[in-house]
Write a structure and sequence with these properties.
- There is one protein chain.
- The chain is 30% helix and 20% strand.
- The chain contains five helices and five strands; from the N terminus they run βββαβαβααα.
- It has a five-stranded antiparallel beta sheet with strand order 4-1-3-2-5.
- The radius of gyration is 18 Å and the shape is globular.
């Protein structure tokens, strides 16, 4: 039986990850070096990693890419929740980390902020081609509906005329 494949993963590593060459659409990681154990001692420093792929992958393939054991990789069902967990923003009882400590290939802080119609139109004006425009749009929260897709295509078509 083939192993199931998913698009989003998190992982924990005890060495700094070398993920800049991994083919993830988006990746982010942070060093947790101030986490506290229940007994009050400091936990061993570790990195939390979030990977978002365009094409599905298996847990084993992601573990192999990172050079870690499969049990250190988890399937992510909530990218937003995992992104918040990088800084413990969704875990107020844990040590809080600043968003500036996150290393990523995208704007982690603004990725889920909704865009206004004027902001989208401005992005169209600055884009050189449709693929570039859609790639840029994929980093923002846009309602996933046919009318939104048609609106974006219409804006682009009007821009090209």
């Amino acid at each position: 039986m083939a192993s199931r494949k998913y698009r989003n993963f998190s992982a924990v590593m005890y060495e700094q990850p070398n993920i800049k060459n991994i083919s993830a659409q988006r990746w982010a990681y942070i060093l947790h070096d101030r986490d506290i154990e229940r007994d009050g001692s400091t936990k061993k420093a570790h990195y939390h990693i979030l990977l978002e792929f365009v094409n599905p992958r298996s847990v084993s393939s992601v573990a192999k890419m990172l050079g870690i054991a499969e049990n250190m990789v988890e399937i992510v069902y909530s990218v937003e929740g995992s992104r918040l967990y990088l800084t413990h923003a969704n875990a107020p009882d844990k040590t809080q980390y600043d968003i500036s400590e996150v290393i990523a290939n995208y704007d982690v802080e603004n990725v889920d902020k909704p865009l206004s119609f004027l902001a989208i139109y401005d992005m169209v004006e600055k884009s050189e081609n449709f693929k570039e425009f859609i790639t840029e749009m994929s980093t923002y929260r846009i309602p996933q509906s046919l009318s939104t897709y048609n609106m974006l295509c219409g804006i682009w078509r009007n821009h090209c005329v």
